[in-house]
C-alpha cells in the first residue's frame, strides 16, 4: 500500500466537485469517485442524475456505497502527508516572509492564508484545513500579510465583491446598504478582468522593452558604422598625406640635386682654369729662374748665345676675357614649387578619385542579367554574369520586356532610391555600351540611348569612349581604353558616374538627372563583327580599389 501511494499525487485524491481530498469516497456506476456528501447534494439540485465528469445520465438515482479501497488509499495518503509535515524541518520566517499566526516562540514561514479564518498557517498548523470536513471548504490562498485589510471595516465582513460604480472592494452587506443598485461583480471576476489587462500591459511593456533594445542595437550599429567609416577616412587621410609628403621629399631632393649639379659644373670649370693657370705659372717661374741665373752670370759668351731663347716670355693663354660665371639659382625653387603644385593638383585629383571610387564601391550590388529582356541574338552565360552577340537570331517568345531593336539586355536588380554600383569587364572588346536604363524605357523600336529616352550610358565606338547626353555620341578625353568599368548611381542626388576601375579614374558623370521609377543595369555587347568583337561583357565581383 505504501509503495502504491508513494507514486500517486495529491490530484488523484481530489473530488472534482469540492476540489478537496475525498471524504467518504463513493463510486458512481460509470466508475468515477466523489465525496459522498458532494455527489448527494449535486444530485439533490440537478435532475436528472448525471455524472459531473463524463456527463452520463442515470434515469434512476444510483445507490451509492463507500468505496473501501479508495477510502483506505485516501486515509493512507493523509497519514503520509501528516508524517511528512511532522518529520520535515520547517523553515523559520525571514524578513519579507509571512509568518504563521499560530506558531508560538519561533515563527515559522506560512504556507497558506485562510480568507475565512483570516489567519496564516505554516505546514503543520495548516493540516486541519486539509483534513477536517468543516475547514476543508475554507478558501486558502498563498500567504499574505494584513488579512484584516481584507475585511470590511464598516460591517466586519469579507471583501468578496467589487463595486464598479465606486471602483472599490465591498462586502455583501455593502451591496444591500451603501452600494444598492450599483454595478457590483464578484471580486474574482474583477480580478480576472484586471489580470487580463495587466497581461496586456505586460505584453505592451515587453514590446516597448524590445523596441528599445532594438533601438539600442541600432545606435550601437550606427556607432560601429561610424567607427568603420572613420577608420577608413583616417586610412585615406594617412595615405593621401603620405603620398604628398613623399612627393615633396622627392621634389626637394630633385631641387637639391639640380642645384648641386650646377655648382659642381661651375666648380669643375674653375678647377680646369686654375690647373691651366698653375701650369703657366710653373713655366713662367722656370723661365724667371733661368733669367735670374743668366743675369747674375759674368759669362759673356753664354748670355749672348742664349739671349734669343731667353729674351721672350714662354707662350701663355690670354686670360683677359676668360671668366667663371656662377650659375643663377634664382627661380629654381619657384619653378619647382610651381611644378610641385601642378603635380599636387594631378595627384590630389587622382587620390580623391581613388577615395571616391572606394566610397562608391561600398554600394556594390550583385548584378545578374535578366534573360527575359535579352535581344534574341544575345547569348547569356548560365550564371547570368556574361553576355555576347551570337550573331544568330534565336526563336524566343516575344514579350513586352524583351529588346527587339538593339543588342541589349538589362540586369534583374534595380535601384529606386539610395545608391547602386556594379563593375563590368570590357577587356578585348572593340565596341560596347554600359549604364542604366529606366524600366519603362522603349525596347521595341529604334531609339537613341539618351537620358531623354531613359538611358544613361557611355560606350566604346571607333576606339573612342563617348557619352550620349543629347542623343548623339560625344567623345570623352579618355587617354586609354579601360578594361574594367564601374557604374555608380546615386538615385536621390540624380547622378550616374562611370569609372576606369584599374586606373581609379573618373570617366564621366551625368549630373542633375531626374529619375522616375526603377533603374536597371544596362548592357550592350554590340555586334560580333565576324569575331572581331566576340569577347563578352563580364559582370565582375567588386574588390575595393
Structure description:
The chain is of the alpha+beta class. The chain has helices spanning 2-6, 36-45, 68-87, 123-131, 172-176, 187-295, 300-310, 332-361, and strands at 25-27, 33-35, 49-50, 57-58, 112-114, 119-121, 140-141, 161-163, 168-170, 184-186, 378-380, 386-389, 409-410, 419-425, 432-438, 455-461, 464-467, 474-475, 484-490, 495-500, 505-510, 519-524, 537-540. Helix 3 packs antiparallel against helix 4 (123-131) and helix 6 (187-295) packs antiparallel against helix 8 (332-361). The longest helix is centred in the middle third of the chain and has 109 residues, at 187-295. The protein is elongated, with a radius of gyration of 54 Å.
Amino acid at each position: 500500500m505504501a509503495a502504491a501511494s508513494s507514486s500517486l499525487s495529491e490530484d488523484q485524491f481530489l473530488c472534482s466537485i469540492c476540489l478537496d481530498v475525498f471524504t467518504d469516497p463513493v463510486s458512481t456506476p460509470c466508475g468515477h469517485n466523489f465525496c459522498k456528501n458532494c455527489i448527494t447534494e449535486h444530485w439533490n439540485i440537478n435532475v436528472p442524475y448525471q455524472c459531473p465528469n463524463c456527463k452520463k445520465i442515470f434515469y434512476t438515482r444510483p445507490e451509492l456505497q463507500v468505496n473501501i479501497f479508495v477510502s483506505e488509499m485516501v486515509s493512507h495518503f493523509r497519514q503520509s502527508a501528516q508524517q511528512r509535515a511532522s518529520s520535515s524541518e520547517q523553515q523559520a520566517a525571514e524578513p519579507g516572509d509571512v509568518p504563521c499566526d499560530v506558531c508560538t516562540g519561533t515563527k515559522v514561514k506560512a504556507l497558506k492564508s485562510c480568507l475565512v479564518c483570516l489567519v496564516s498557517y505554516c505546514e503543520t498548523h495548516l493540516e486541519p484545513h486539509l483534513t477536517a470536513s468543516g475547514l476543508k471548504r475554507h478558501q486558502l490562498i498563498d500567504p499574505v500579510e494584513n488579512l484584516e485589510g481584507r475585511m470590511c471595516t464598516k460591517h466586519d465582513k469579507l471583501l468578496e465583491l467589487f463595486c464598479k460604480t465606486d471602483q472599490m472592494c465591498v462586502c455583501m452587506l455593502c451591496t444591500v446598504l451603501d452600494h444598492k443598485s450599483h454595478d457590483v461583480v464578484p471580486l474574482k471576476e474583477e480580478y480576472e478582468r484586471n489580470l487580463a489587462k495587466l497581461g496586456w500591459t505586460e505584453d505592451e511593456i515587453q514590446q516597448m522593452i524590445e523596441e528599445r533594445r532594438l533601438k539600442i542595437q541600432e545606435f550601437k550599429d550606427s556607432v560601429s558604422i561610424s567607427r568603420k567609416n572613420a577608420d577608413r577616412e583616417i586610412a585615406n587621410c594617412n595615405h593621401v598625406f603620405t603620398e604628398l609628403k613623399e612627393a615633396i621629399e622627392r621634389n626637394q631632393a630633385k631641387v637639391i640635386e639640380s642645384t648641386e649639379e650646377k655648382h659642381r659644373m661651375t666648380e669643375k670649370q674653375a678647377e680646369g682654369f686654375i690647373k691651366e693657370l698653375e701650369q703657366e705659372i710653373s713655366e713662367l717661374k722656370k723661365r724667371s729662374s733661368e733669367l735670374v741665373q743668366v743675369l747674375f752670370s759674368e759669362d759673356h759668351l753664354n748670355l749672348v748665345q742664349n739671349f734669343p731663347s731667353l729674351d721672350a716670355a714662354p707662350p701663355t693663354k690670354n686670360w683677359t676675357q676668360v671668366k667663371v660665371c656662377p650659375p643663377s639659382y634664382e627661380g629654381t625653387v619657384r619653378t619647382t614649387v610651381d611644378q610641385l603644385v601642378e603635380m599636387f593638383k594631378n595627384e590630389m585629383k587622382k587620390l580623391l578619385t581613388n577615395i571616391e571610387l572606394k566610397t562608391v564601391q561600398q554600394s556594390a550590388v550583385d548584378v545578374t542579367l535578366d534573360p527575359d529582356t535579352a535581344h534574341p541574338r544575345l547569348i547569356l552565360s548560365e550564371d547570368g554574369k556574361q553576355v555576347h552577340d551570337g550573331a544568330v537570331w534565336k526563336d524566343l517568345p516575344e514579350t513586352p520586356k524583351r529588346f527587339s531593336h538593339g543588342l541589349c539586355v538589362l540586369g534583374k536588380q534595380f535601384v529606386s532610391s539610395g545608391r547602386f554600383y556594379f563593375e563590368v569587364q570590357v577587356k578585348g572588346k572593340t565596341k560596347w555600351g554600359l549604364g542604366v536604363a529606366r524600366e519603362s524605357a522603349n525596347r521595341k523600336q529604334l531609339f537613341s540611348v539618351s537620358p531623354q529616352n531613359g538611358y544613361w550610358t557611355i560606350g566604346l565606338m571607333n576606339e573612342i569612349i563617348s557619352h550620349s547626353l543629347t542623343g548623339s555620341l560625344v567623345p570623352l578625353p579618355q587617354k586609354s581604353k579601360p578594361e574594367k568599368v564601374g557604374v555608380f548611381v546615386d538615385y536621390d542626388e540624380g547622378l550616374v558616374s562611370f569609372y576606369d576601375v584599374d586606373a581609379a579614374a573618373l570617366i564621366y558623370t551625368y549630373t542633375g538627372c531626374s529619375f522616375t521609377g526603377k533603374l536597371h543595369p544596362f548592357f550592350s555587347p554590340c555586334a560580333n563583327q565576324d569575331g572581331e568583337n566576340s569577347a563578352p561583357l563580364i559582370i565582375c565581383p567588386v574588390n575595393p580599389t
